[in-house]
Amino acid sequence: MQTNFTAEQLADPHVAEAESILRKCVHCGFCTATCPTYVTLGNELDSPRGRIYLIKDMLENGRPADDQIVTHIDRCLSCLACTTTCPSGVDYMHLVDHARIHIEKTYRRPLMNRLTRNMLAMVLPYPGRFRLALKLAALGRPFAGLFDQVKALKPMAAMLRLAPSKVPPASDFARPATHVAAAARRGRVAILTGCAQPVLDPGINEAAISLLTRLGVEVVVPHGEGCCGALVHHMGREEQALDSARRNVDVWTRAIEEGGLDAIIVTTSGCGTTIKDYGHMLRLDPVYAEKAARVSALAKDVTEYLATLDLPISESKGLTIAYHSACSLQHGQKVTMAPKLLLKSAGFTVKDPPEGHLCCGSAGTYNIMQPEISARLRDRKVKNIEKTKPDLIAAGNIGCMTQIGSATGIPVVHTVELLDWAYGGSRPKGLDRAVQV
Ligand code: SF4
Ligand code: SF4
After folding, report:
1. 25 lines ligand 2 (CB under 6 A)
2. Whose CA is nearest to atom 7 of ligand 1?
3. Is residue 429 part of a domain?
4. Ligand 2, residues 2, 20, 22, 28: which to mutate, most atoms within 8 A of Cβ?
5. Do 209 and 121 fall into the same domain?
């Protein structure tokens, strides 16, 4: 694609990067076929190609964002299906990240939209605040229907509906500690505790730590870890995202210096995509660029790491699993086979639901901010999953698990919970009544 940026504009490294991404797009439109918002809404401006044109026009003309571009960029899930499909290697992720930062800096959102986004940015990344908010949401749930009557309040209704009726107690595994290897030691890793996941489902990291230590891996939960910054990064709040990234880079660098790390294990794939991008996010920071690149190189989805440990083939469990491949795992990190191969080796029958490339509509805060499109994608996803007639659904991202679980009676568990169970750990919570094995 031809671009028309001035030399002065290109002196800004962020604009220069956007320009080099734009130049790779050849307008072929292959990406439209796999874009969930184009498939759902049928509008070219809700396709990757349409958004690329809108971004190009805004950046080239040095314009502030307007209602049109905000509407179509806000509707983008950042699922990155377009990057898997694109034959020209267009780096849509970094282009849309840049557009979101530009929007955040130049556009004044309507009041309710602004307040909702502020609240999400102030609550979700902090486990204590998030836990309290979930408890309050449980009380407010009967009023979700009332909020639905007013367009600007629909995100509140979506939030109340997504909140679980009961919040599990905090887990000891989320506290800073070193969990020593319970077999001949063959590795040392740090694990991201994260923000929303340990509140919604502490059993996921418990299972990961339990499995890894039994396999001979020492697992460190370092002091000072926090939210990876993905939630605010996707809102265009770059400074807040970079602060989170720097804090975690410092924490993990200390852990590397103290005892070495073979990997930084991530059990929420949405976070994994962002941590693997720290090196890029902090590339212009002279103090952090190198440290961040080192951290990104060590970041591994838990299944990526487990795949290196040669787990034994286990006898059949007689259970059929529909494996939901989270967008952040399959498109963001290109981790597609490891989770399925591990589940198969562990004795499960694994089914790939149709249209597996399409997002479930969770996408960070998308299911709150864009509840209508999100619900359509969720229902389509659940219908496709249910076609495989599974006993259980497995996924590697808490957002997807919550989203899919809100629309089906089939139990949804994290891949690592099933692996831990298959190799001698506890049965994932919530399966006791659902599965008789
Ligand atoms: S990231 Fe997903 S929703 Fe956004 S343009 Fe690409 S395919 Fe479409
Ligand atoms: S597939 Fe790639 S090159 Fe083709 S229009 Fe989409 S982003 Fe551009």
Report:
1. yes
2. 35
3. no
4. 28
5. no
Query: Quick one: 323 and 415 in the same domain?
Result: yes
Q: Is the pLDDT of residue 148 over 90?
A: no
Closest C-alpha to 324, from 378, 365, 254, 266: 378
Residue 329 per-residue DSSP state = I
Can you give the pLDDT at residue 155?
A: 87
Structural domain containing residue 332: 311-422
Structure token digits, residue 189: 């890793």
Indicate if the pLDDT at residue 436 is higher than 80: no
pLDDT of residue 78: 97
Beta strands 412-414 and 392-395: pairing type?
A: parallel
- Domain assignment present for 2: no
Which residue type sits at 61?
A: N
Q: How confident is the model at residue 433, as a pLDDT?
A: 55
Measured by CA distance, the residue closest to atom 4 of ligand 2 is 28
The mean pLDDT of 277-303, rounded to a whole number, is 98
Instruction: Write the CATH number for 26.
Output: 1.10.1060.10
Ligand 2 centroid from CA 63, angstroms: 24
**In terms of domains, do 134 and 208 share one?**
no
H or E stretch at 218: strand 217-221
- % of the chain residues with pLDDT over 90: 87
Rounded Cα distance, 422 and 411, in Å: 17
| Arithmetic mean of pLDDT, 48-64 | 97
- The total domain count for the chain is 4
**Position 230 confidence tier, pLDDT thresholds 50, 70, 90:** very high
Q: What is the mean pLDDT of the chain?
A: 95
pLDDT given at position 156: 87
Asked if 128 and 198 sit in the same domain, the reply is no
Domain of residue 409, CATH code:
3.40.50
Residue 435 lies in a domain: no
303/20 Cα distance (integer angstroms):
33
Domain-located, residue 433: no
Asked if residue 383 and residue 270 are part of one domain, the reply reads no
Ligand 1 atom 5, closest CA: 48
**In terms of domains, do 262 and 192 share one?**
yes
Whether 405 has a pLDDT exceeding 90, the answer reads: yes
Nearest CA, atom 8, ligand 2: 25
Sequence-ordered list of residues with C-beta below 8 angstroms from that of 178, at least 6 positions apart, any chain: 218, 219, 220, 221
